[in-house]
Predict the structure.
Amino acid sequence: MFKKIDSQTLMAVGVLLVSFIALFISVRQTAIMGEQTRLLVEQNKASAWPYLEIDLNRGFTRDQYGKLDITDYKIVITNKGTGPAIVEAVRISYDGESSRNWHDLYKITGIPDSISSAHSNSSVMNKVIATNEEVRMLTLSNNSELMNWVFERGDKIVMEICYRSVYDDHWVVRRDGFKSNFEMTTSEKTDACQVAAEDIFIE
């Protein structure tokens, strides 16, 4: 024969069952809220995603013999993303040797004393570059001798810029060569900026 279950036992079982159901619903709601929070963070990151490009602006004229003469040479950094780019480190090298500033770079290329190193430049180190902002990092257009010297050796110049978003996501953009507009430019996400202090370009 079955033992009769009293009302208090039934009530206790019911309370326990309700508690389990409430716990399950709470856990499920927490999981849903966590997923919603994650999606919200991802959406916010997408709306504040920086994307730096390293561009070379050149201009040429053709002389009476058909030879091309360079008349304009600018290195321009542009943020094509949706949020500000916070630059943490810059590295510029020539033939594998890092430089600390533009005059150091010219020296590494073996520039003769007869060529003036006068130029215009803007630093991007520790700079916040806003969306659609352009920074003319180097302009040589007013110094034809230096412009031709750098242009002829531009294929051995490499630039890397490590930057982050306001959410501390990091990227490195790299351009191999500054002679033509067919040179390889790459961008990849990274855990952190890893440029050695002695290799940082500070100008």
Notes: The chain has two domains: 1-47, 52-199. The CA atoms of residues 171 and 189 lie 4 Å apart. The chain has a mean pLDDT of 88.
